[in-house]
């Protein structure tokens, strides 16, 4: 199985193959039995402890080479563990933040897809229908003209995320759940975002009104670390980061015109590669 993604301003479409182990887990009867074991909390806890320990350092060099990661983008430090490397900080100036408050920016390095929110307060991703109430565990109204923005972070991406505007928020809600992979093979077929562990909040922004935000954990670990959980925030300020595992950030926005190339790519089943702070849309004008 292959899923497609496209770099912005380029005509070339890239193909990211689903790895054979992930396909085995989700498409094989024996694999699905193994998934039930991987979902157990103690498995994630043990894996997390290993990734946080110095014993995991041997994995770093091989991971960089295998995934062709340009370490010139990141601060030069000695890593104490694989998770210390995985949550590495970007070098100053490598992710410039567009400061025009009328423009919507990406909260993270990711591959983005955008889905129209329907009249029944849900959105569809292929075979899966996602109810806003189930996703955020509360009644959410006022997004009839809005979009659900799905930012999928792969294991090679920078795993920190930011606030997309100035504003305030009242706190985070932690929703416990499973840890499916967030690769398309699961998202398209398993309602993974509703089943996975996640942290959600309502951001009261200066330029875009209420924006709902969810950070979604992923298979095995995908631990969410939100460093700021209430109060005032500024555009471009770091909100938190994910520990090891591919993960997802979801935004619900209203009265925003999303860039046409992103919408067109989503219609074609293609994800669009974006960087943290990059403009992905603009506030609608009356």
What characteristics describe this protein?
286 residues; alpha+beta; 11-stranded mixed sheet; 3-stranded antiparallel sheet; 32% strand; globular
List the helices and strands and how they pair.
Layout: E1 2-7, E2 13-17, H1 20-27, H2 29-38, H3 41-52, H4 59-66, H5 82-86, E3 103-105, E4 110-116, E5 122-125, E6 128-131, H6 132-136, E7 147-153, E8 160-162, E9 167-169, E10 173-175, H7 184-187, H8 192-195, E11 198-205, E12 209-216, E13 224-226, E14 231-233, E15 238-242, E16 247-253, E17 256-258, H9 260-267, E18 270-274, E19 279-283
Parallel strand pairs: 1-18
Antiparallel strand pairs: 1-2, 3-19, 4-7, 4-18, 5-6, 7-16, 8-15, 9-11, 9-14, 10-11, 11-12, 12-16, 13-15, 17-19
Largest sheet: 11 strands, mixed
Class per helix and strand makeup: alpha+beta
Order of SSEs, N→C?
EEHHHHHEEEEHEEEEHHEEEEEEEHEE
Low-confidence stretches: none
Output the number of helix runs: 9
Radius of gyration: 18 Å
Distance between the termini: 44 Å
- Number of E-state strands: 19
**3D shape:** globular
Helical proportion, percent range: 10-25%
Average per-residue pLDDT, rounded, comes to: 83
Provide structural commentary.
The protein has 286 residues and is α+β, with helices and mostly antiparallel strands. The chain is built from 9 helices and 19 strands. It has helices at residues 20-27, 29-38, 41-52, 59-66, 82-86, 132-136, 184-187, 192-195, 260-267; strands at 2-7, 13-17, 103-105, 110-116, 122-125, 128-131, 147-153, 160-162, 167-169, 173-175, 198-205, 209-216, 224-226, 231-233, 238-242, 247-253, 256-258, 270-274, 279-283. The strands form 4 sheets. Strands 1, 2, 4, 7, 9, 10, 11, 12, 14, 16 and 18 form an 11-stranded mixed beta sheet that branches. Strand 11 (198-205) and strand 12 (209-216) form a beta hairpin. Helix 1 crosses helix 2. The chain starts with a strand and ends with a strand. The mean pLDDT is 83.
